[in-house]
């Protein structure tokens, strides 16, 4: 095993254990300076550890696709994370607070994939590969102490992926998703208002970037998988016992409770 292979194995195991035990760890960047490719290698290995325990891949999430989120987290590049079936919660369902370290929620729009996607694609190719779109809630949870991290830190940590819930899907061909109103409330109180236009100016561009990332890092988005396009607003902390509802114009709402 090379020094870099050992680094990837050690960091993936450390982050995997932090996730399973809901215990924060120190940032990777405090003791080393990995490249972005090395950070993605850590992410891939940590996901492989989950697959070895019986989970399956169900898609990917895009991160830092809005200017508000970039500014909130102090970064300047888009990133992605991988989603497994164990991360998905039922619409209207509950997830236990004990699974998370410092959970935050954000409203998103999600794509249901019906054709394989990988590499450079056009907007038209992206649209043909989508059977439906839906409102989504992503619950993010950095495994790092104090929710502080560099770009390579967060990439290694699977881009803070934790849990997601999807609303009912509608055919993508029936909707113009480029500038839909977005609202998120917690326990009935509005906490964020935005627009899908905040997602790269057009959520379809996020799917195009997702396909590009897939090609670059050697995998394919498969039919039946889902892509979370990225948050349209800042992420908001959520307390135990609270219920979050995300609403996007023309789409059915989605909700999730932190039990």
Layout of secondary structure:
Blueprint: H1 3-21, H2 36-52, E1 57-63, H3 67-73, E2 79-84, E3 88-89, E4 94-95, E5 104-113, H4 123-128, E6 130-140, H5 151-156, E7 161-166, E8 181-186, E9 189-195, H6 203-216, E10 226-231, E11 236-237, E12 243-248, E13 254-258
Helix pairs in contact: 1-2
Structure description:
Strands 1, 2, 3, 5, 6, 7, 10 and 11 form an 8-stranded mixed beta sheet that branches. Helix 1 (3-21) packs across helix 2. The protein contains 6 helices and 13 strands. Helix content is 27%, strand content 29%. It has helices at residues 3-21, 36-52, 67-73, 123-128, 151-156, 203-216; strands at residues 57-63, 79-84, 88-89, 94-95, 104-113, 130-140, 161-166, 181-186, 189-195, 226-231, 236-237, 243-248, 254-258. With 259 residues, it is an alpha+beta fold.
Order of helices and strands: HHEHEEEEHEHEEEHEEEE
Mean pLDDT: 95
Shape estimate:
globular
Number of helices: 6
Secondary structure class reads alpha+beta
Name the beta content range: 25-35%
What's the Cα radius of gyration?
17 Å
Structure summary, number of beta strands? 13
N-to-C CA distance: 43 Å
């Amino acid at each position: 095993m090379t020094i870099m292979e050992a680094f990837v194995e050690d960091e993936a195991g450390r982050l995997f254990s932090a996730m399973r035990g809901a215990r924060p760890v120190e940032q990777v960047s405090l003791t080393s300076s990995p490249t972005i490719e090395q950070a993605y290698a850590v992410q891939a290995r940590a996901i492989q550890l989950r697959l070895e325990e019986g989970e399956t891949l169900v898609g990917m999430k895009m991160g830092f696709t809005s200017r508000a989120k970039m500014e909130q987290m102090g970064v300047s590049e888009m990133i992605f994370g991988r989603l497994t079936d164990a991360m998905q919660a039922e619409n209207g369902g509950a997830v236990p607070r004990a699974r998370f370290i410092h959970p935050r929620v954000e409203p998103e729009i999600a794509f249901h994939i019906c054709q394989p996607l990988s590499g450079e694609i056009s907007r038209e190719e992206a649209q043909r590969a989508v059977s439906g779109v839906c409102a989504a809630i992503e619950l993010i949870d950095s495994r790092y102490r104090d929710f502080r991290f560099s770009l390579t830190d967060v990439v290694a940590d699977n881009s803070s992926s934790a849990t997601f819930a999807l609303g009912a899907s509608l055919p993508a061909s029936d909707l113009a998703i480029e500038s839909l109103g977005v609202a998120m409330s917690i326990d009935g109180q509005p906490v964020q208002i935005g627009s899908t236009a905040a997602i790269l100016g057009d959520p379809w561009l996020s799917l195009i970037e997702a396909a590009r990332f897939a090609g670059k890092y050697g995998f394919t988005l498969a039919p039946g998988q889902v892509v979370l396009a990225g948050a349209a607003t800042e992420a908001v902390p959520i307390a135990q016992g609270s219920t979050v509802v995300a609403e996007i114009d023309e789409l059915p709402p989605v909700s999730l409770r932190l039990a």
